[in-house]
Amino acid sequence: MSAPANTRSFRIRLALQTMLVAGALVAVFGAVAWWYASQTLERSVDDRIIAPAQRVWSRIDPYTTDEQFKMIADLVFGTSPDRNATNAVLVVQDHRQGKTIFATPNAPKDLDVYFRSCFPTADELSHVPPMPESGPGSPPGRRHGPPPRRNTDFDDLLGTLPDFSPPEPAAERDLPFRPQMPMVREPTTFTARSGGIDWRFGAFSSPSYTIFIGLSLTDFYAEINRMAWWYVGAGVIGLAFAGLGAMWTSKRAMRPLERVVSTAQRLTASDLAERIHLSRDDDREFAQLIDVLNDMMQRLEGSFQQAVRFTADASHELKTPLAIMLATLDDAVRHTTPGSTEHERFISLFEEASRLKQITQSLLLLSQADAGRLPTHPDTYDLSADLSRLLEDAEILCEQAGLTLEHQIEPGINVHADRALLRQVFQNLLSNAIKYNRPAGRVALQLTRQDSQIAFTVTNTGPAIPVENQSRLFERFFRGDKAHNRQTDGFGLGLNIATELARANGAELRLVSSREDETIFEVCLNRTNAA
Question: What is the SS3 string spanning 222-241?
Fold first, then answer.
């Protein structure tokens, strides 16, 4: 039993699989690219923090006053108590006393926990040399000591070595000279959220206090989201093009298979000479497949032609011996005493020889049909009138079998077909309808003109044909279980012969339905057969 056909399209499945693989690759690449872009932008944010830190660090010392912090913040960030920028903040905290010394107006107020976590430890402060004593104008409460030692590493980071310092603007020259403060620990960065805004802070610690310079990440996230949306849009467009490309590629790849399918559909038992065309553009795998199929069809054609010739020759050669046997048996029957043992034996042999002759004639007819040499003599005639003569025979046969005959023949239907062959089809169906009917059953014949066809139907009230047998009903030598007995005449070629004869006339014989007490066969002729 063959497997159920898969209705999915290989081309569509190939396109979807290509899009799936491409989508997975795009997703992985997008995730890596997004992570790398995020890291890059985060480093750029840290660089934007380092730049103002250089300028702030070079202008402050342990003696910087609040007014000077305000002036420095205004110079570096463009912020002052009168202006409320949202992209940069400066927070100065005394890590010894744990209090805020200065903060720009837009600085977050709820990040002390983050700030305190960035304070230098006591061990780090213990390794810092003492600061110089306070001089004139130094604010009280600040740490004093000797001049601080320079930290060249931190100077390199912040770019504040004296030899490379840029000239100060005129407004900054009013500030008193401040000795460069040492770095207590390496600068650290962290991200914190306050008031619905994410901030990126850099912490820079001196012996006296730690300054925090922060930037809002709103623009950073906006840039990340913009990049993500651009990438998603480009990915969708890329996947669409990948799907279209896969459809186009699969269409080109399937052309050899389409030729195989179209050629296979045109092959029939009477015509196995057609071969699959091989193109120079075909890939090697498809070319090998086509060569194998062509070789297989060539072998099948040779085997089939040999079988057809054998059947035709054997049937033809059997005609003469059978004719002699029948003549001899007929003579023997006539010259024996009726009712004697010899007479009954000769009658039985005569019947079997007659049966063998019918089989031989049927096989010869089928071999001619298989070879496409079935002789036909189409003519235009009145099918309705021709069936009226068939009804006379049907009435006699039905009366002998105890059956009721019903008929509905539409008058005036002319066809162009072989009268003898088409009549043999109808007689075969009528014979089966009578043979496989129930006692006191019914046979119905109907000829109607439909929209595009002429239909002849035969209905009988015999037992239903089993469903498992219906698909094999028109096979040669096939007989259903209920017909496998010698009481019912036949040898399993009637319907197959009727099918071939109907096909020779451009008609189609089919089983319409079969249920208990009603089996319907139909012969359909196209209107092209109508005269």
Answer: HHHHHHHHHHHHHHHHHHHH
Q: How many other CB atoms are found less than 10 A from the CB of residue 48?
A: 17
Percentage, residues of the chain above pLDDT 90: 7
Task: List the end-to-end C-alpha distance of the chain, in Å, as a whole number.
Answer: 43
pLDDT value at residue 79: 56
Q: Which residues contact 238 (CB under 8 A, 6 or more apart)?
A: 22, 26
DSSP 179-246: PPPPPSS--EEEEEEETTEEEEEEEEE-SS-EEEEEEESHHHHHHHHHHHHHHHHHHHHHHHHHHHHH
Strands 442-449 vs 507-515: parallel, antiparallel or unpaired: unpaired
Judged by DSSP in three states, 480 sits in coil
Report the DSSP pairing between strands 442-449 and 404-409: parallel
b/e code 260-290 from CB counts within 10 Å (16+ = b): beebeeeeeebebeeebeeeeebeeebeebb
Nearest-10 crossing angle of helices 10-57, 66-77? 140
Average pLDDT over residues 282-288: 77
CA dist list (Å): 433 to 89, 420, 442: 103, 20, 9
Give SS3 for 140: coil
Lowest mean pLDDT among 124-138, 357-371, 514-528: 124-138
Tens of pLDDT along 517-526?
899 999 998 7
Residue 327, token pair as written in the block: 């003549």
- Which distant-in-sequence residues (6+ apart) come within 8 Å of 240 by Cβ? none
Rounded Cα–Cα distance for residues 252 and 256 (Å): 8
Pairing of strands 210-216, 518-526: unpaired
pLDDT in tens, 286-316: 788 888 888 888 887 777 777 667 666 666 6
Count the Cβ atoms, other than its own, within 10 Å of residue 91: 22
Cα–Cα distances in Å, from 41 out to 17, 50, 223, 254, 442? Answer: 35, 14, 9, 48, 92
